[in-house]
Amino acid sequence: MLESHAAHTDTNRRSRRNILFVTSEHADLIKVGGLGDVSSALPKALLAFHDIRVLIPGYFSVLNSDHRIDIIAHLPAYANLPECDLGCMQIKNGPIIYVLICPELYEREGNPYSNTDGQDWSDNHIRFARLGLAAAQIAQMGNKLDWSPHIIHANDWPAALAPAYIKWQGINIPSVFTVHNLAHQGLFSPDCLPALGLPLDVFTIEGMEFHGKISFLKAGLVYASHITTVSQTYAREITTPEHGCGLDGLLKTKFNQGLLSGIINGIDESWEPLSDPHLVEGFGARQWSRKLANTRHVEKLFGLHHSNGPLFAVVSRLAHQKGLDLTLGVVKTIVRAGGRLVVMGTGESRLEAELERLARQHPQQIGVHIGFNEAEARRIFAGSDFLLMPSRFEPCGLSQMYAQSFGSLPIAHRTGGLVDTIEDGVTGFLFRGANIESYRNAVQRALYVFKHPNLLSAMRCRAMASPPFWQDSVQPYDNLYRSLLKKSENGKVIFGNWRAPA
What we know:
The chain is of the alpha/beta class.
């Protein structure tokens, strides 16, 4: 076995390829959601297989992250997309990061997509087309950069034009496009086409056209060599009208052609409850008294009364997609059973106000914090007994895996990645149909388990052993990369295409 493993490792080293991972977020530098977590953790895990480098815009927070940035290249202007410098940054224990430096586009107050008032930047089409173009320009530089990608891996709509520019500029390398959330599509007026330097024939149903607008996300779906999404169940769901966001016909065709697959996300090793320094007290399986120390901290933090009853938690973006309105409908069931509820997150003002109103009504049983704090969020996962995730759709979800790792059993809607990561009645609870009645039944099942300590302990142990870590999740990506490279070397078509049904 040792010789076999060594041989496999040597083979990996000899066959390492250059992968350019294109993203608009990176948790070590700037994060809005799960994309940032994946864009940090997945490239780190893939370093064992390939020379993977990350391309990200030079936002204000990236440039001021206390990491040295060396300018290594200049990227020329194209159409109305301005010239940029390309910086190089090294993060400890991570891949090299290429930073797209263009002050007029990226050095602004706000997040990557919107200003401090929550309004989308009016020039987002320019900002993220420039990101996609930069990936193509890097692929063209060859010896000028002393590194050239063999594969471009673009993520979500802000990076979706990378596969498209590669095709339009005749760059003969494969591309992967990963959909983290199909609902965010990057829609803009077709009047933008000349500014982006795009050929007019892309404004068709077989190209970027989507109900009279151009869709960045659709460009990624159409022109990438292969599409992935972040769970097997979500890959099937998005081929249906219910979850396909108007793109189900295209996605069903890609699925049937074997060009769409689901690869579940993992979590990084920092979510190990014995060693996480954020926790009040670390713990392992069956060390429930040590887990309880985190519960007591959460009670004090949120002003809840001390109780031996169950502690339910929500750590989430407060949005309709996440089913927070459904959670509002089961609060009475939790409170009447002697349970408590803590909520941490930000989102829609209506939901924020309603949750705060409930906290005022039940001051020692419900606690709400509008905002986010990484350390306290981890203590909530560790201190809670159950995590509420009634998402209407959930491409993958990471919170349920964080909770499981910390011995908190998720209660979740049977959709997307929640199906692929929660075994009903074993590592959590699933319910069918995004409605209050089904949700309440799942909560009642959880309350029953809580009253039976041996059953609760057994489920916790199974849950803690269930989440995949990234080192377990990267093999499918490696397999995909090698398959695409093999096809490319054999002269097979590597650009995506699609013809709409007549």
